[in-house]
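Q: How would the C-alpha cells look for this protein?
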Amino acid sequence: MPDSHSATPARKLPTPLGKIYDLITGDEDARVCKDIPESACRYQPRNFFGYLLSNVMTKIADELAGARLVLPWLLGAVGAPAAFTGFLVPLREAGVLLPQLLVAAWVRRMPRRRGVWFLGTALCAVAVLLMALGAVNLTGVSAGWAVLGLVALYSLAKGLCSVSAKDVLGKTVSKTRRGALMGSAAAIGGAGVLAVGVYAEWLAGSAHSSELFFRFLIGAGGLYLLSMAVFATIVEAPGATEGGGNALTTAVRSLAVLRSDSDFRRFVIGRGLLLSVALVQPYYVLLAQRHSEQVSGLGLMIIAGGLANMLSSPVWGSLGDRSSRRVMVIAATAAGLTGLATWLLVSSGAGFLDSPWTWAVLFFLIGAFHNGVRLGRKVYLVDLASTENRATYVAVSNTAIGAAMIGGGLFGLLADYAGADAVIGLLGILALVAAAYLRSLKDVSG
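A: Here is the predicted structure in C-alpha cell form.
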C-alpha cells in the first residue's frame, strides 16, 4: 500500500464539481492526495466543497449570534443590566477553551469524529433558536439570565465542533489544499457578513429591534441545520484512536508545563493580559446603543466588523512573519490608546458621538486591533513550540486563558456601577500594560 504521507495522484474525475475543484486548487493533470488516507482521494472534490459550504454557513451563523456585537445589542435592547453583557464574551470563549484538554482525549477514542461535529452543531442550533424565542418574549433580568445560560450551552457545543472539525478536515482534504479551502471559506463568509450588515442597516425597514433579532437568530439556527445537511456529504474514513487515554490524567500531566517552561509561562501571562483587548468590544456596542435609537447603527457596526476582518488580516499576517511579538505589541498599544481616547471623548460629551458612523469607525478600529492581537499570539505560540510539544502548548494555553476569561465577566459589574465608558478606559490601560509586558518576551520569529 502506498505511503499515505506522500503526494499520491488520484484519477481526475471529469465532473462539474471536479472541474471547479481543479480551478480553485490549481490541479490540472492529477489531484494531490497528501497526508490523507488513500481511500479519501477519490472523494476529495466532494469533501472539499462539503467542508467549504458547511464552514461558510457556520461562519455567517456565528456572526448572526455573535457575543461581541449582536447579543450585546440584543441585551441592551431588552433592558438587561450591563453586568449580563460583560459575561457574554467570557462565557462564549471559556466554554470553548476550558474543556478542550478533556474533550480532545475523548474524541481521539473514536475512529470517526464526524458525529461529534453533528452533535455540537445541533446543540448550537437549539441554543440560538431558543435565544430567538427569548428575544421576543423576555425582557430585563430574565432575558439576561436566559441568554447567558444559552450562550454557555452554545459555547460548549462550539467546543465540540472545534475539536472534531479540524480532525475531519485533516482526514478528508489534502495537506496542500487546506489553505485554499479555509481562505475561500473566510472570503465567502466575510461577504455574507457584509450582506447581513447591509440588510440590517438599509433593508430591514421599520422592523422593531426584537423582531430583527428574532430574524437574525432564526436565520442562524437555520444555517446551522443546513450546514449539518451539507457536512453529511463528507466521506470520512476510520482513523487512528491512539492518544485517547484517561482525559483527566492527561490534562493534569500537561498542565505541569506551566511550571517547567519559563518562556511558555511568560507567554501565557502575556496572553492573559491581552484579554483586555478581547473583552472590550461589547462595551463599545453598549455605548453605540446608548447614542442610537432602536437598531440604528447596528448594521453599520456589522459591516465595520466584517471589513476589519477582511482588511486587517493580510497586514497583520505580513508583519507577523517578521515578528509576531511586535504585532502583539503594536496591536495592544493601538487598542489601548483607542480605548483611552474613547473614554475621554465620552467624558467630554463630544457631539459627533451621536452619529452611528462614529461608532462604526471605532468598532472597525478595535476589531482590526483585536485581529492583530489574535493573529500575533497564534503565530507566536506556533513559533515558540516544537513539533513535540505544540499540541500540549495549545491545549494548556487555551485552558489557562479559558479560566481567566471567567474572571473577565466582572468588568460587566463595573459597567453597571461606573458606565461602559469607564470600563473601556480601564481595559485600555490594561492593554497598554500588556504591550509593555510583551516587549520583554523573547522574539521567536525568523
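The CA atoms of residues 415 and 423 lie 6 Å apart.

Confidence is low (pLDDT under 50) at residues 1-13.

Upvote if useful.
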